[in-house]
Design brief:
Helices cover 49% and strands 12% of the residues. The longest helix has 23 residues. The chain is α+β, with helices and mostly antiparallel strands. It is built from nine helices and seven strands. Helix 5 packs antiparallel against helix 6. Strand 6 and strand 7 form a beta hairpin.
Amino acid sequence: MTMDTTPRTIDYSAFLQQQLATQPHNVMAHVLGDEQIWIKRAGAPHGMGRYRAMAVLAGLLRLEVLRPVPNPGGPVAIATEVRRLQDLAARGVHVPEVLAVQENGFAMRHLGRVGEEAHSLGNAIERTLRADNPAAVLTLWQQGMDALLHVHHQGTCLSQAFARNMVRDPSGEVVCIDFEDDPAAVLPLPLCHVRDALCYAHSTAIFLQQSGSLPEARERWAAWVARGSAEMQAVLATSIRRMGWIRHLPASRRLGRDLQRVRAAYDLLSG
């Protein structure tokens, strides 16, 4: 993190231009006067090979929700993220404030207090789990579900709706981050909503399982699904049915945490 004694009236565009040319990392925090901002610089363009492989897998499994959403990286990803942040903010979704933009990077406001890390919802749930507080685990998990439902009711979606991409600000409110791709540009919106739901379930169900909260979470999940569109509910039901093979996967911890996450998510979705 760099420190700066810039006066209170800040020329964000000039500061962005300077840092894009000099900062050693693509994403860095900077303190200017009494505030903190982040500057994100375009990285190298991404290859498309893994997206083609994902498309083949989605076809083999007959799971449209697994169709890849390409993130080309480079300046295109920067333009996509800025556009998505501005669009989501205009719809009333809590996202970082964009302060200045250039073709190869942009500046956004920090989500926490100056010098303090803004923790993800995933980290908050995991800390609560370690504190042996199942009720608080469920409360935090529900907060993410509520944030996701709000996004969907605004007629849009997230990009990768994992709990790590939901940050709790100092007031405890959920703020969504990381928008380098745009699912709605390549998938129908109901499919995007299911994609969001599956990402969130995949990243959180293991905590519900470990805290003993899965039975109540299943009831809350069903209530959440019932508030979605009929099209979303139909796509979700079909997707879960076609993922039935997951129940036959071994549950042993020795086979890795990723497999445990998949099993726990399916237990939540199919309960």
